[in-house]
Amino acid sequence: MSAATQERMPALYLSHGAPPLADDPVWPGELAAWSANLPRPTAILMISAHWEEAPLALGATEPVPLVYDFWGFPEHYYQVTYDAPGAPALAESVRKLLRAPGIPVQDIPDRGLDHGAYVPLVEMYPEADIPVLQVSMPTLDPVKLMDIGRRLAPLRDLGVLIVGSGFFTHNLAALRQGGIPAWSAEFDDWGRRALEAGDVDALLDFTRRAPAGQLAHPRTEHFAPLFVTMGAADETGELAAQQSVIDGFWGGLAKRSVQFG
Description:
Low-confidence stretches: none
Order of helices and strands: EHEEHEHEHEHHHHHEEEE
Number of helices: 9
Distance between the termini: 23 Å
Strand content: 15-25%
Structural class: alpha/beta
Shape: globular
Helix content: 25-40%
Oligomer: single chain
Radius of gyration: 17 Å
């Protein structure tokens, strides 16, 4: 096993899937191949669509049980564990970077990783031997989330992998059996082109400017982590250095996942 790196880490936005992702014949291998091609992180900072909390909160810095924030699945999905080390040193760095007058940061020490964090990590780093810290999204405002990402960007030079975990399209109520919905395919194509063009203004205004934007994301929490990732790349001048590492669809939803840097 290689030693952890302190070269600048890329910043990732990934579509995390539901717990049955583990049973997909393709997607787990795509995630594993992605992590195998990355420098080894010193720690991982996760921002998940499934934790909204204001003021911004830091999760557990010591191992605690996972948060099984889903219902109606077979029992074995509730038996999954991910016993990664806590990241108290990373938590202290995050506090220093984010705290400012009128901008508090709180601690919720018993809040474990939710499925937006641990489901992809199980596939990418199955040995669970890299410290992980999850922080909340205190807002869904894309501009404010980009600012948070900019503040967190210096962590990349310390070998920290910043991961925004969401889903490139996410409207479970509008899914139908079979096929890829037109709204999902149209939004995915628009998002790909906007990312490739570096059109930050369009992405920030995606609910109005993307085709089927409000249908692809009737509530925007699954697209929102992208803006934290973009902020971490913008601060280091790497927004143009992006690539879609994973694309395609899963259950009709676009699983596009992007690496900056």
